[in-house]
Design goal:
By secondary structure, the protein is of the alpha/beta class. It folds into three domains: about 5-200, Rossmann fold; about 205-240; about 245-365, Zinc Finger, Delta Prime, domain 3 (Up-down Bundle), CATH 1.20.272. Helices cover about 55% and strands about 5% of the residues. The chain has 17 helices and five strands. The protein has helices at about 10-20, 40-50, 65-70, 95-105, 110-115, 130-140, 165-170, 190-195, 205-215, 220-230, 235-245, 250-260, 265-275, 280-305, 310-320, 325-345, 350-365, and strands spanning about 30, 80, 150-155, 175-180, 195-200. A five-stranded parallel beta sheet has the order 2-3-4-1-5, sandwiched between helices. Helix 12 packs across helix 14. The chain is elongated.
């Protein structure tokens, strides 16, 4: 992947270019930022830039043998480490699936990856054997270039096993580059953080996501705008929304609120049966949209200004709801929906889950405790 293919993040790209040009690229970088911001894509672009035989001032050539191997994720001097499942299982076990997933979508999240390798409800980790494997790989000579690069995706999953890599990161073999790609700094050992130069990667702007969806996915303007607004800077979430075949979550949510307010049991059962058929990803997107709507509704209620991220019917509905839903009720519904998201992730029975939530929202709206 070349820098030109990474969505947005021009400031980070400029900083990386300057580091390489000034020959002050540290031996350990930690790209830190929210999900879907392009951290892993930036890591791949930097790796290709460093390994390229004929780079320009700001870009890998994309034509040499080294670039070809990096773009296919088969370069012998580029190594990967990522969360897996199973005792003593290393990243090498899932390397073919990793390449396939990364080529499809370098903005993927860890849940998508773990489900892809059959984790189901198992927790992912980067284990002791993986650390031993990393130390062994990086002790070998380079194959076709004078650099060795390790990209570790989500070092948060190292836990205390990260202590095994401290000496390697502090005193790496010559011409070795570590690129750690992380989302939660608090879950990384301080001793690892202190050995890395942190590069902060911000979430993407709505406009950037919208333009990327239109250019890369051929998404229409309206869908791209809605997906960008809902994504909160996360291109992966925007991509899932845009690719959804049943993405009229706005109408589904507004219908749900109306039915919850009315409290018609038969209609609520019918609605729960409908959403149960949509699949887990659509259910997650529905909850994401609901939380987005309620956040914007809260801003409208507090400021009474219409400069919010709701359009057309959504905005009109939000204005009609202002005398009906109070601040404390919004808080309760938001908390309830956040719990729903947790249980959807864990494959709870969707019909039971959403019917129970509907009954509870009816209680909240009618203020029955």
């Amino acid at each position: 992947m070349r820098f030109a293919e990474v969505i947005g993040q021009q400031a980070v790209k400029d900083d990386l270019h300057q580091m390489v040009a000034a020959d002050r690229l540290p031996h350990a970088l930690l790209f830190l930022g929210p999900g879907g911001s392009g951290k892993l894509a930036l890591a791949l672009a930097l790796a290709q830039y460093v390994l390229c035989s004929n780079p320009s001032e700001e870009e890998a050539c994309g034509e040499c043998a080294e670039c070809s191997k990096v773009e296919k994720l088969i370069h012998p001097d580029l190594h990967f480490s990522f969360p897996t499942v199973g005792t003593n299982v290393t990243s090498d076990t899932f390397l073919s699936q990793w390449r396939e997933a990364l080529l499809e979508n370098p903005y993927m999240d860890v849940n998508e990856w773990l489900q892809r390798i059959g984790a189901e409800n198992k927790q992912g980790n980067i284990n002791k054997q993986e650390c031993v494997n990393i130390i062994h790989k990086l002790s070998l000579k380079t194959f076709t270039t004078n650099r060795k690069i390790l990209i570790m995706w989500l070092p948060e999953y190292l836990g205390k096993e990260g202590n095994r890599l401290l000496k390697l990161i502090e005193e790496p073999p010559e011409q070795t580059l570590f690129i750690l790609v992380a989302e939660n700094q608090e879950l990384i050992l301080n001793t690892i953080l202190s050995r890395c130069q942190i590069v902060k990667v911000n979430g993407l702007a709505d406009e950037t996501i919208m333009e990327a969806l239109k250019a890369l996915e051929n998404v229409d303007q309206s869908t791209a705008a809605t997906a960008a607004q809902l994504s909160d800077g996360n291109y992966n979430e925007a991509l899932k929304f845009a690719r959804s075949k049943q993405n009229d979550h706005a109408q589904l949510f507004l219908d749900w609120l109306r039915l919850c307010y009315q409290g018609n049991g038969v209609k609520l059962v019918s609605w729960a049966e409908k959403i149960a058929t949509l699949g887990r990803e659509n259910q997650k997107q529905f909850i994401q949209y609901a939380l987005h709507f309620l956040r914007e509704y809260l801003v409208l209620k507090m400021t009474e200004k219409e400069i919010i991220r709701l359009q057309g019917t959504e905005l009109e509905t939000a204005k009609k709801l202002m005398p009906l839903i109070a601040f404390d009720q919004i808080e309760k519904i938001v908390n309830l929906l956040s719990e729903q998201a947790y249980y959807v992730e864990r494959n709870a029975n969707p019909k039971v889950l959403f019917l129970s939530a509907s009954i509870e929202v009816n209680r909240i709206l009618k203020r029955r405790q």
